[in-house]
Amino acid sequence: MTMLLRRLLHGSFWAASEKIVSIVLGLTLYYLLSRLLPPSEMGAYFLIMSVVMLAAIVAQLGLNQTIIRLIAESIGNGRAGRAHFAVRKVFLYALAGALVVFGIMISGAGKWIAIEIFDSPQMADAVALAAVLVILVAFES
């Protein structure tokens, strides 16, 4: 077996394992939450997570795909310094985008969305936590 094939199989095994563990843990979390929380709070949880995911996508400014292309191109051309520069630059832009979305959510838009659009006081109470979660989710991706 060639070295490349062995590396591909090893990487595929770990990627598939991570996905399976992630799915099992996610289902376990949803099961526990559905047993512990009343239906109104469970609904608020799902609404908050949906808003967080959407806001994190906006906060990323489309840079998650851009950085992959820039790193691959730089490494393929043997320019590791350029790849390092691209990572730093994209990190700063993503931080700026995340902070802008954080500021918008904290400034009152988050509570307005919770009350006026979703009619959820529980969601309005958790806007500050959701804004912090936006930053974390944006950088996770």
Instruction: Specify the number of helices.
Output: 6
In helices, the fraction of residues equals over 70%
What sort of overall outline do the alpha carbons produce when their principal axes are compared?
flat
What string gives the helices and strands in order? HHHHHH
Share of β-strand residues? under 5%
- Biggest sheet overview: none
- Mind telling me the C-alpha Rg? 20 Å
**Cα end-to-end separation:** 33 Å
Structural class: mainly alpha
**What's the average pLDDT?**
88
Kindly state the number of beta strands: 0
Low-confidence stretches: none
What is the strand and helix layout of this fold?
Blueprint: H1 3-36, H2 39-59, H3 63-76, H4 80-117, H5 121-125, H6 127-140
Helix pairs in contact: 2-4, 2-6, 3-4, 4-6
What are the defining features of this structure?
141 residues; 89% helix; flat; 0% strand; 6 helices
What this model shows, in words?
The longest helix is centred in the C-terminal third of the chain and has 38 residues, at 80-117. The mean pLDDT is 88. Helix 2 (39-59) runs antiparallel to helix 4 (80-117). It is flat and about 55 Å long. It has 141 residues and is mostly helical. It has helices at residues 3-36, 39-59, 63-76, 80-117, 121-125, 127-140. It contains six helices and no strands.
